[in-house]
Amino acid sequence: MPADEWIFLYGPPGVGKSAVGRRLAQDLALPFYDLDAEVEARSGAAIPEIFAREGEAGFRTWERRALDALLDNTTGVIALGGGTLLAEGLRSRVEATGLVLSLEAPPETLLEHLTSSSDERPLLSGDIKARLEDLTAARAGHYRSFPLRLEAGNGAPGEIAWLAQMRLGRFHVRGMGPQGYDVIIRPDGLEAVGEALRRRGLRGPVAVVSDGNVAPHYAARLEGSLRSAGLSSRLATIPAGESYKTLETLTALWEGFIRAGLARSSTVVALGGGVVGDLAGFAAAAYLRGVVWVAVPTSLLAMVDASLGGKTGANLPHGKNLVGAFHPPRLVLADPGTLDTLPEAELRSGMAEVVKAGVIGDEGLFELCAWGWEAVTAASDEVVRRAAAVKIRVIQDDPYEDGARMALNLGHTVGHAVEKASNFRLRHGEAVSIGMVVEARLAEDLGIAKRGLAETIAAVLNDLGLPTRVPAYLDSEAIRRAMQQDKKRTPEHLRFSLPARIGAVRVGLEVDDWGPIERAMQQRS
Ligand SMILES: NC(=O)c1ccc[n+]([C@@H]2O[C@H](COP(=O)([O-])OP(=O)(O)OC[C@H]3O[C@@H](n4cnc5c(N)ncnc54)[C@H](O)[C@@H]3O)[C@@H](O)[C@H]2O)c1
Predict the structure, then answer these.
(1) How far is the CA of 523 from the centre of ligand 1 (A)?
(2) C-alpha dist (Å) from residue 262 to 37, 83, 132, 391
(3) What CA–CA distance (Å, rounded) separates 445 from 492?
(4) How would DSSP label each residue in 49-93?
(5) Contact present, 124 and 114 (Cβ < 8 Å)
(6) CA end-to-end span of the chain, whole Å?
(7) In terms of CB atoms within 10 Å, which of 419, 430, 433, 498 comes out highest?
(8) 5, 353, 419, 444: which is the annotated catalytic residue?
C-alpha cells in the first residue's frame, strides 16, 4: 500500500462529506473530488434525472464508473455518496486503494444540514425526516463497520478537517520551504518510503543515514522499499548517541556522500532518532549548498518533536546545537511500529514530550496519558498522531520561532538548566518532566494557573515513570547559572512559556525575580 493513498470521506447524507472533504484536501494540498459532481459530469445529467431515468441501480453504475476513472488517476480526497460503498465489490476496491474515514453525526444534525441545503436528494424525497430515519437505521451497521470513524457533529468544516488529519495521521506543514512538506504517520510506513519518494519526484542515489542501533533493525526494510520503487541507495551508519552529534561525524557523512556519487538532485533519508535526524538534515542542508532530505524518525521523541519543524544541527564542544540550519525535510514518514525496539528508558523519556504536547494543546491526549503506561504504549499510534498534531499546529502558526512557537518551550527553561546542571546525568525527557512541574508551580505562584495544576501534571508524569522533582544533588546556584546561559533568554529577564491550564499555555512571560523560581524548585527528590 503506497503512503499517499486516496482519502475517502464517507457517511450518511448531510454529514458534511463534501464541505469537510474540500477543506481537508486544501489543508493537505491535495486535489478534491466530489463523487456526485463527477457522476454528473460524466453522465451529463443531474442526479435526480439519473434516478428518474435509470433508478438507483443505474445511478450506482454511474458512481462505479466515475470512481474507477478517478482511482486510476493520481491521489487526492474524495467525498463519496452516502451509499456508494454498499455496492458489491466497491468497498474492497476502495479500501485497497486508500483510507476510508466514516463521518458520524446525530440525526438532528443531519436533518438540519439537509433541510438548509438546496441539493435535491432523490432517496430522501417526500417526508425527509422519516426517510432519513429509515435510511440511517438501515445503514447504521454499515457505517459503523469502517475502522476509521470520526464524530463530525456540528463543528465547522475546518475543525472537522483538522480532527480528520489527526485521525488519519496525514498532515501538510506550510510556511517552511517553497512547497511545504507532508507528515505521514502510519503503522507500515517503512515499506512505503520508496513509493512516497517516487511520487514526489525525488531521485537517487539515496543516502540512507542511520545509527548502529537502528540500522540492524530497519535499514534492510527501508532500502528494500527504495529498491522496489526503482531507487538505488547507499547506507551510512554512524555510531549511536548524542556524543557523536559532532562536526567529525558530519565530515564523515559528507565524505560518504561524495563516495556514493550524491548529486544536487539526490536525496538523503534519515532513519533514526533525533540525533540522526538533526545530523543528516544538517548534512543535507550544507552538502552542495542543499539537497533534499526525508525524515523517517524511529524514536518517540523524534516522531513527536525532533523531526517536525525543520531545525537541523550539530553540537560543538562548547555546547549543544550551537551550529545548524532551518532546512525542512520534503517528507516526514513515521512508522510507530518501529517503537517496538526502542529501549524502554528512551520511550519513557519521549513520553515527557507527549505529556507536554497534551498540556500545550490537547486535553484529550493528556487524559490518555493519565491512563498510565500500559494504556499509552498500547495506543502508541494514536499517541504519536496526536502529539505530532500539537507541534504541527504550533509550527504552522509560527514557522521561524518568532512568537507562538515558544509554546513548545514549556518545561524547557527549567528543563534545559537542570539537564545541564546535572551534567547530562538526567535524560532530556526526564529534565523536561521536572521542568514542566516546576514551571507549573511557578505559574500557580504567579497567578497564571489555578492551584493544583502542578500536582495534576506531576501525577501523570510520575505514573509514566518520569521524575518530577529537582534531584537533591543539584545545587540551586548551578541551575540558576545554567538558566541564565540558556540561549532563549532575553538580555535581562528569564523568559518562560507557562501552562495556564491543561490544553493552554502562555508564552513570552518574563520573570526577573529569582524568588518565585527558587520557591517552585523547593520540593526536592
Ligand atoms: N531538531 C529539533 O527540532 C529537535 C527537537 C528536539 C530534540 N532534538 C534533538 O534530538 C536528539 C534526541 O533525540 P532522541 O531522543 O531520538 O535521541 P537518539 O537519536 O540518540 O535516540 C535515542 C537512542 O535510541 C536509539 N534508537 C532510536 N530509535 C530506535 C529504535 N526504533 N529501536 C532501537 N533503538 C532506537 C538510538 O540509537 C539512541 O541510542 C537530541 O540531539 C536533541 O538535540 C532536535
Answers:
(1) 30
(2) 46, 51, 60, 32
(3) 21
(4) HHHHHHHHHHHHHHHHHHHHHHHTS---EEE--TTGGGSTTHHHH
(5) yes
(6) 50
(7) 433
(8) 353
Distance CA 312, CA 326 (A): 6
SS3 content of the chain, % helix, strand, coil (to 5): 55, 15, 30
Q: Is 245 in the pocket of ligand 1 (CB under 6 A)?
A: yes
d(CA 1, CA 313): 33
Question: Catalytic residue among 248, 289, 423, 492, which?
Answer: 289
Work out the widest C-alpha separation in the chain, in whole angstroms.
Answer: 84
Bridge partners of 523, per DSSP, are none
d(C-alpha 11, C-alpha 336), whole Å: 28
- Between CA 469 and CA 438 the distance in angstroms is 8
User: 416 an active-site residue?
Assistant: yes
Q: Decide: 133 in ligand 1 pocket, CB within 6 A.
A: no
CA–CA gap between residue 206 and residue 293 (Å, rounded): 9
CB-side neighbour CA atoms (13 Å) of 220:
2
pLDDT of amino acid 522: 84
Beta strands 77-79 and 32-34, pairing class: parallel
In the 3-class helix/strand/coil scheme, how is 115-144 assigned residue by residue? HHCCCCCHHHCCCHHHHHHHHHHHHHHHHH
Give 373-430 pLDDT, tens digit per residue. Answer: 999 999 999 999 999 999 999 988 776 666 778 899 999 999 999 999 998 899 999 9
> Is the predicted pLDDT of residue 497 greater than 70, yes or no?
yes
Choose one of 209, 213, 303, 332 to mutate for the ligand 1 pocket test, by most ligand atoms within 8 angstroms of C-beta.
213
